[in-house]
Amino acid sequence: MTNPPAMPDWYGRLLELTRLCCLFGLVFFNRYNYYVLPAEYSDRDSVLLWNFRAGLFLAFIYPGATAARQMVSNEPRSTGDRPQQNRVQFEPVQRTPVTSCLAVLGGVLSCITIGGFIIQMCQYLAGGIKALSDQHSCSSMSGTIEGVRFTYHSTGQHCDTTAQRDAIAGAIKKFVSNVEHDKICGTLCLRLDHGGTWNGWLKLGPVGSFNENAYCGSGLPFNSCVSGGNNDI
Q: What transmembrane ranges does the database entry give (predicted)?
């Protein structure tokens, strides 16, 4: 069923102005009948009655009918007229993935299995990486978590990235799970990038075989790249 087209704003204002003019006209006409015209030329009681009825119509009935018509005409005429964004606003937002690439530094001396605490480790590392990014800091960080030694630094303009903390954590987890099968052996260098000038250089290894002096940065033969970060953690 097709509804009448919506009335433009100027049309409603014109109707309201007309109604007010008629009301003021009735007031003026009543005063003219009582104070200007002689009584023998006017049936004052009849005029007053009809003016009272007209005033009620203009003051209450007519505005209500106009408002009801505007409400009907402004309703969506079909499902296809509803705003398109109402259909897509609940779709999940996809983050730009973070890419992790591997370079092995030196021989494999020992391994550590991290399946039981991999999520905790990746979230911890991503929190520190994102904190340095938010500070536009090119400083390095290092530490130990559950027997895994790590160092990290970044390069690029301002040393910052728009990648979210969960995306960074998800990318590291996906790499360690899919490529290293939840194990870290020897000393590994991971290159993280997010499509811009930023690069994060993350060096990982078991405490017992971690090479503190091994270089982890540009120029190394990186391979085994994995793109991740969306719902990977």
A: 17-35, 47-65, 97-119
In a domain, 93, yes or no: no
Query: CB-based burial of residue 42 (10 Å sphere; 0-12 exposed, 13-18 middle, 19+ buried)?
Result: middle
Determine the angle formed by the axes of helices 44-56 and 9-35, rounding to 10 degrees: 160
Residue with structure tokens 């204002």? Answer: 13
Q: Tell me if 118 sits within 8 A of 182, measured CB to CB.
A: yes
| Dist. CA 153–CA 203, nearest whole Å | 9
The mean pLDDT value for 32-37 works out to 61
Neighbouring-strand partners of residue 185? 111
The percentage of residues in the chain with a pLDDT greater than 70, rounded to a whole number, is 58
Same domain, 78 and 116: no
Domain end marker among 48, 64, 86? 86
Identify whether residues 153 and 213 lie together within a single domain: yes
Q: How far apart are CA 184 and CA 179, in angstroms?
A: 10
Q: Helix (H, G, I), strand (E, B), or coil: what is residue 186?
A: coil
Dist CA 154 CA 74 (whole Å) = 56
- Enter the tokens of residue 49: 């009655």
Tens digits of per-residue pLDDT, 95-108? Answer: 667 777 766 666 65
**Which residue among 52, 86, 120 closes a domain?**
86
Determine the structural domain holding residue 141 and report its residue range.
98-228
Residues in the chain: 233
